[in-house]
Write a structure and sequence with these properties.
Elements lengths: L14 H4 L15 H5 L1 H8 L4 H10 L2 H7 L7 E3 L7 H10 L7 E5 L8 H10 L7 E5 L5 H10 L5 E5 L6 H10 L5 E5 L1
Parallel strand pairs: 1-2, 2-3, 3-4, 4-5
Helix pairs in contact: 4-5, 6-7, 7-8, 8-9
Length: 191
Amino acid sequence: ANEAVSLADLGPPPKQLARVAPTCSFDAHSATGAFDALGGVPLEQIMTRLPTAERLPSLSLVGRAWLALRREPRMWEAVDLTRFRPTRAGLLKIPRVIDLRATRELKLEAFDKQSLVANDLKAFVAEAAMPRLTALDVSGKRFTDSVVVALAKKFTAIERLAIRNNGGLKEDTIVAFARAASRLVSLDVDL
């Protein structure tokens, strides 16, 4: 549980963030003064407004109060992993370092330029405990029929499903997912 997720695990930063030079740094092993004194509620309100890709490494590195927030399920009601495309190691580390039980929305991309393969995505699905997941938005050609079948078996409470930019899925797979997800009210497929 003390495993940290680094920016390197999450892949290259978006272009607009790559040009920003840090103005200060924090030592993860020392007290962070005002940040720790701020307390959980205001800090949680600030952090939940940050995109997942910035929130995840920040909560691991800044201080004790921030690290404690990383373990709060409320912090992860919406998880968007599209901004930074995680490496295989980063993707598989995520369910071990944050509590995904309260996650209601998950966005994930898997494109050909990444090192992710279908088995990596299936391993993430198998390890991620997200019983409250109701919205799933997946994009990319790496979401093969076998990955979508694994998603359908694991996340039966899905109400909204969006599959984008995937020309390789069979129509039967999408129909099977829709049948397995008995609560499905919205299906957005852009192949």
